[in-house]
């Protein structure tokens, strides 16, 4: 009888010990889970704060770049540039044109690179929507043309086309603004893009650069 009682007590003690060990494991697992979760949340908050700070810095840099003048650019009084939609030919005072009356249909300018000259009256409408128009003549080196095509191809609100009649080898035009450069790696090219792609000169910011006129 005493032996059975001893065995029963021993079994109960083992069960109680197992339960205590199980509870201890549960507590450790909860502590680990809470610690890991806290670390993850803290990491996410820290990363989110870093992303926000980085974006704010980029916004400040872009704002500063848009205020800084582009060395050598030409400007026209935007208030004096016509903005009427016309179906007739338009004679522009500069080549390529940087504004004026234009066709109701714009050239597609979602990073579109055209192999042939485009109608000025349609390209000017693209400028009204905030596009930068890159043009080049036979003086431009093929390597520079290819480099500019790559830049335009990955930049919304830009278009590119040849223009044999223009004076400069490479010319960048926005509404009321124009820059002439000799090489694609001229740092003013990037500055012009930063400042004028959907820049403050845009008469119709946010207007479409797709569903317009494309290359035939």
Automatic annotation (TrEMBL):
One Pfam family of this chain: DUF3105
Transmembrane segment boundaries: 31-53
Source organism, top-level taxon: Bacteria
Bias type Basic and acidic residues, positions: 1-25
InterPro entries: DUF3105 (IPR021454)
Annotated spans, Disordered: 1-26
UniProt keywords, alphabetically: Membrane, Transmembrane, Transmembrane helix
Identification of the protein by name: Membrane protein
């Amino acid at each position: 009888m005493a032996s059975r009682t001893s065995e029963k007590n021993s079994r109960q003690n083992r069960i109680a010990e197992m339960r205590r060990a199980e509870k201890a494991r549960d507590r450790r697992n909860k502590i680990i889970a809470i610690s890991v979760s806290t670390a993850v949340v803290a990491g996410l908050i820290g990363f989110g704060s870093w992303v926000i700070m980085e974006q704010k810095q980029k916004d400040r840099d872009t704002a500063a770049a848009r205020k800084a003048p582009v060395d050598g650019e030409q400007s026209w009084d935007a208030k004096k540039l016509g903005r009427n939609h016309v179906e007739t030919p338009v004679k522009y005072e500069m080549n390529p044109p940087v504004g004026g009356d234009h066709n109701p249909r714009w050239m597609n300018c979602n990073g579109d690179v055209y192999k042939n000259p485009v109608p000025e009256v349609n390209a000017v409408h693209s400028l009204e929507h905030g596009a930068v128009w890159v043009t080049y003549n036979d003086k431009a080196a093929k390597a520079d043309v290819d480099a500019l095509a790559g830049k335009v191809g990955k930049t919304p609100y830009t278009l590119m086309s040849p223009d044999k009649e223009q004076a400069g080898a490479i010319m960048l035009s926005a509404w009321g603004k124009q820059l002439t450069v000799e090489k694609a790696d001229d740092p003013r090219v990037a500055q012009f893009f930063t400042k004028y792609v959907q820049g403050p000169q845009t008469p119709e910011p946010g207007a479409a650069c797709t569903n317009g006129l494309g290359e035939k």
